[in-house]
Automatic annotation (TrEMBL):
Its EC number is 4.4.1.1. GO terms for cellular component: cytoplasm. Belongs to the trans-sulfuration enzymes family. The modification N6-(pyridoxal phosphate)lysine is found at residue 223. It is an enzyme of class 4 (lyase). Pfam families: Cys_Met_Meta_PP. One of its GO terms (molecular function) is carbon-sulfur lyase activity. Keywords: Lyase, Pyridoxal phosphate. Gene3D superfamilies: Aspartate Aminotransferase, domain 1, Type I PLP-dependent aspartate aminotransferase-like (Major domain). Its cofactor is pyridoxal 5'-phosphate. Pathway: Amino-acid biosynthesis; L-cysteine biosynthesis; L-cysteine from L-homocysteine and L-serine: step 2/2. This is cystathionine gamma-lyase. GO terms for biological process: transsulfuration.
Amino acid sequence: MQTDTEKATTTTPNKLGFDTLVTKKVEVRGPVSPLCTPIYQTSTFVLKDTRHGASLCSHQELKQDESPYLYSRWSNPTNDVLERLITTLEGGYSTYVTSSGMAAISTVLLSFLKAGDHVIITNNVYGGTHEFATDILSRYGVEVSWVDQNDVANYRNAIKPNTKLMYGETPANPTMVLLDLQAFGALGKERGILTVVDSTFASPYNQRPIEFGVDVVVHSATKYYGGHSDLIAGAIIVANETLDKSLAHQFRLFGGALAPNIAFLLHRGIKTLALRMERHNNNALQLARYLESHPKIKKVHYPGLESHPQHELAKKQMRGFGGMIGMEIHGGLEAGRYLVENLKVFTLAVSLGGVESLIEQASTMTHGMLTAKDREKAGIPDGFLRLSVGCEDVNDLIQDLETTLSEINI
């Protein structure tokens, strides 16, 4: 019988011990050309030599046969494929995928703003963005002004000598107020102010803000990009090389890079984006028309309706009108609560953009952190409901609403 010492020193024919062999990299036999991009589940990458490593660490030009990958917080092949795909879909210069939509938003705002700067943000904005601007930016000495994005003139009137960034969201969460992208982009170029747009509600299938002159686009890729309610991710798309160079360093330092296994899932979700968005668009338009005609519904907010005050703008800058609907019900808070708690096909949940239809009470849930005054400014009255229309049979969705609405006494 071998002693423990003898076991530890026993070697294979290639003179390496078992304990060493289990840790060594084994090369993939090739050539290999997988149809689906593999998950590069690795934190670090093997370097050719010290000069190769030094070049990567100092961002110097690489030789033709040298890998561009050093560490997965910086870049990863799975993420790189995903980022290049999103860049193409958005018509941008480059993309950074992040660990969440809020990671994308916070990275952009912290990368391009510093103490003493002024930022203008729409009142009609995602609750998390509102919280970040109110609780975090102010703590770091950034001045924030809030405007109604319904008219780009409101941004112009709010500009100060220290204004560095203007932020919009279109369609807005949850009111579906639109931002005129062309006018917004032009104002930014005229005044030398960075323009940022959250385009989550539209997806690149329906809207590409960079084509209208916007500098930076952010997405909660959790939503329509992913499409299946099974991942958390974000994306930042920049319009040109100068912006890319400004963002790259901060992105690496903030550490919000997307894990490669999630990047794989996100890439897979994107493969059905066009098919899903066509159904989202069609279902939501039919549902919005049904709701608009219902006597118990006070108001429907959907840019695809002729009654939407910005319908012509929607037709100008959107290919389709998306799957999101804002809705006010007669009876307010309690009637809305009954509806969302008793539907059978719609699911009561936050988030959006998945194949299943969701509903939530925006005034008490996703935007409940806003003060009553701020909700009033944003056009979110008590009982405001937000519907994420999925890919089910639209007749089932209509029947679900019809049955539950009939049970509400107003």
